[in-house]
Amino acid sequence: MKTPVVSRRQFLGRQMPATLGTVVWGGVxxxxxxxxVPPSEQVRLGLxxxxxxxxxxxxxxxxxxxxxxxxxxxxxxxxxxxGLKVVKDKRGKTAETSKDFRRLLDRKDLDVLLVATPDxxxxxxxxxxxxxxxxxxxxxPLATSIxxxxxxxxxxxxxxxxxxxxxxxxxxxxxxxxxxxVRSGKLGKVGLVRxxxxxxxxxxxxxxxxxxxxxxVDYDFWLGPAPKRPFNPNRFHFNFRWFWxxxxxxxxxWGVHLLQVLLWAMGPEPPKAVVASGGKYVLxxxxxxxxxxxxxxxxxxxxxxxxxxxSVGLGLYNRPWGMSFTGTAGTLVINDSxxxxxxxxxxxxxxxxxxxxxxDPRPAHVRNFLDCVKSRQQPVENLEEGxxxxxxxxxxxxxxxxxxxxxxxPVHEIVTNDRKxxxxxxxxxxxxxxxxxxxx
Length: 440
Hints:
Helix content is 29%, strand content 22%. The protein is an alpha/beta fold.
């Protein structure tokens, strides 16, 4: 789709899926299998990364009748097989397969790349996909470093591609209502915002010995630009997120989801400085990222606090995880279950109130991306937005790992007061992998 034209049918089809099992298309309620979409209106997709998140995203994309999955790509044969099952279940047919994402770049029958790999593999497929003329839906965070995120932003802009970051709360009506209220001024002057995650589902993962990679896995390709290391089952698939080579722990895993809501409401201004504290105090295993962490961000007009703690289920305001905005007239508290306002005594700008949530925003987030693929308008969480959110999360880790209060220059995207911290803004790629124009 080099020069897409929006047809009347496409325009009418820009509606949110009604449920996970149906979609609204041209004003008619259809099941995912009830497709009558002309080839000229199809969006042909290639999945890169067929793990749990990739398969969930793929199933959501296939709720939309114009989407066809052409190829499933993963370095693990078992993951490929699971991805093909999703295609078979949703479309009644199979797809082609590949273990090398580069084979997808030159295919003329692909419009969109769905990148749902581990974090250290987000940047390269996205950048090269943009250069190859593909639109991209990439999971959060944008990458393992701020510098990679900047390259991704520039690749999307220079190649005029539509790229959406997959942090779906940006498409939630519940969160939109809450952030609108914060911006309305009814809470008064908001000087403190917080996000927290007290998670009892994270348990120790043990200390397994290094071993041979499973049959059917191209482990060297899985490592890609990350440092060469022996295979260890804890550093693979889901648990990769607890190791610095591949991800940023809960700060970037859950942090991006929750901080985006705070930043959505508070506006685009970047932080001036960040300080953080934490460590591994609970988990006795070979993971690396902190199980306990607090990051305090100094913004020009407010302070933001992030905190997480694993192996506990107690949280602020009886919510194991969530966000809050505290103003002079009241405090708004929110998570997926809904939001409530706790008003301050002797004020009259906002009443105490509760609003339920509970909707799954992922279908709407994907629908927004597909609509923008056709219209060439920017999606709600384009890479400028995604980079801003991911940068804030990364800065929390940089402050922790450097052990200093870091001062941030958002124009040049550098830490100005600590050389050790500034090195963590970027990441070294293992040869022969190279990200075009990666900042050093």
